[in-house]
């Protein structure tokens, strides 16, 4: 059974994951508007992943007999001055989400709630991967630049990242279906 404090914090995380999904979907729309099709596809894919993160949390709360509570949220920003600024905002957002996951882990460890602690380990690993991914995109933006043809090459590079992630996710789904 989860403590009331843990239920509240898991519900908070559900709503943060939902906001993350909306944020990335809005960013995808901005990229599509700017004809950055690779970035748009990547961010749309990432928005879907955030909804999966939200769903896992909801399922966990339901499995433990707790009530998942979805709340309203503020609209994400819809305008960005540049692709670089947008990815800087994403990286900062992922660092914020990591801090929230770490706080949840601390609470689970302090209570102690070993079941939730075990459940949250997937999120710890996922956040490490997310921060690494967006830091590497920012590194590529700094290396290639976003002026002139640089923007084209960055968009193409991010499209390649999206394709690689799609192939990996499809392979993982196929493996899981065969087990």
UniProtKB/TrEMBL annotation:
Keyword presence, Lipid metabolism: no
Pfam families: Ferritin (PF00210)
Catalytic activities: 4 Fe(2+) + O2 + 6 H2O = 4 iron(III) oxide-hydroxide + 12 H(+)
Compartments, as annotated in UniProt: Cytoplasm
Top-level taxon of origin: Bacteria
Molecular function via GO: oxidoreductase activity
PANTHER family associated with the record: BACTERIAL NON-HEME FERRITIN, FERRITIN
Function: Iron-storage protein.
Family: Belongs to the ferritin family. Prokaryotic subfamily.
Protein name, per record: Ferritin
Organism of derivation: Floridaenema fluviatile BLCC-F154
Gene for this chain: ftnA
């Amino acid at each position: 059974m989860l403590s009331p404090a843990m239920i509240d914090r898991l519900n908070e995380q559900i709503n943060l994951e939902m906001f993350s999904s909306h944020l990335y979907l809005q960013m995808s729309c901005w990229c599509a508007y700017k004809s950055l099709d690779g970035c748009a596809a990547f961010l749309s894919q990432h928005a879907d992943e955030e909804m999966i993160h939200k769903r896992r949390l909801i399922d966990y709360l339901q499995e433990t007999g707790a009530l998942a509570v979805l709340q309203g949220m503020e609209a994400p920003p819809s305008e960005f001055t540049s692709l670089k600024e947008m990815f800087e905002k994403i990286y900062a957002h992922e660092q914020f989400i990591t801090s929230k996951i770490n706080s949840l882990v601390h609470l689970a460890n302090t209570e102690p709630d070993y079941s939730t602690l075990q459940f949250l380990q997937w999120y710890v690993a996922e956040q490490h991967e997310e921060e690494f991914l967006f830091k590497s995109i920012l590194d590529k933006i700094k290396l290639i630049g976003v002026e002139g043809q640089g923007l084209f090459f960055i968009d193409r590079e991010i499209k390649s990242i999206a394709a690689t992630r799609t192939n990996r996710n499809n392979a993982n789904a196929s493996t899981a279906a065969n087990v």
